[in-house]
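This is your field. Have a critical look at the following sequence-structure pair:

***
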Amino acid sequence: MCKAMCFLSYSRACYDCEIPEVTLYRPENLCSDQVQWASCKDENATERRDACKRNCKPACLKLKYHFSTVKIDRKESSGLYHNSCLCERH
C-alpha cells in the first residue's frame, strides 16, 4: 500500500490526476485516456517518488484501510481502466 501511495502522489504531481496501481483515492480524479504519459509537468516528481518508495516501512503492511468499491464505466474505448472496479479510501 505504501508504494501505491507513493505512485499516486507522483501521478498527481505529474498529471493533476490519479493513475491507480492498486487503489484510487478519489474516483473523480481518475486520469483520462488523453493524458500524455511521457510529459510529466513536475521535473522533481520522479526523484520524490523513488525516495518515497525507498522509505516505505514493512510496518505499513499491518495498517488497516477502510474502503468502498466504486465501479467506473469509462466512455473512452481504449481505456486502460475501462469498466474497472477501484477502491476509494475513507
